[in-house]
Amino acid sequence: MVDLLLDAGALLGESPRWSVQEQRLYWVDIEGRNIHRTDPATGRDEVMGLDVQVGCIAPRAGGGLVAALEDGCALIDSWGAVPRPFGPAALAAMPEQRFNDGCVDAMGRLWVGSLTRDKANPQAALYRLDPAGSLTEIFGGLTTSNGAAFSPDGRIFYHADTPTHAVRAYDVDAAAGTLGKGRIFHQFEMGNGRPDGAAVDAEGCYWSALWEGWRIVRLSPAGELLQTVELPVQRPTMIAFGGEDFKTAFVTSAGKNLSEEERAAQPHAGGVFTFRVDVPGLAQPAFGA
User: InterPro entries annotated for this entry (predicted)?
Assistant: First the structure.
């Protein structure tokens, strides 16, 4: 059973991250330029406004957040603090791009990708932000970097360039912070939803939110479809696991650019939804800076 946790009305809700210490869900509204902190127990939602779009966030080991903003990354030392630029402004000279989806590996590094508004020219890329502040391009040729997640043992990295409808898997050299050659993990059919944000559970299964697909799917470590969770919104964007037992799934969604008919069919588009799962998710590593 899928429940509405928060009727947030987000333009482009994304990047849900569960805080074990606070027992709260952090997430962003990219186009609303906001970071949210939601308490599932009370329904209270706090909002931190920014001057720029924020593609994704992750907790930091020393407290606060790391955030991938429009053209570069930043550190947020505490709730409400002004973001401090961190690392190079890699996209400053590329106004058609912005940072998008990302996740942190077991070594405390943020793997974050960009997207380009010019879909005819795949110039977006996947990067690795190290705790010392260096930013390394891992590979390019993308239009919409998404679906970043690691297997429980950290040996496989999952990634989707959303318009291709494919999730790819890469072998990881954790010490070097590099990836091997990619392979197709799962190819979704065209026209029935595209892979957006994702998370991996304790059994190593990959959960993908399907943009325009009205659903979340669970794929086995071999890429086989195991489970489908239908949602009351057309554009789910990302899934995260939390709660005391990590068996509560949280799903963000987008509510922008809907016609009157579409809005009537999904009045809670842009909301945050929850459902229970049988296999728990995993606590996410914190960024090392």
Answer: 6-blade_b-propeller_TolB-like (IPR011042), SGL (IPR013658), SMP-30 (IPR005511)
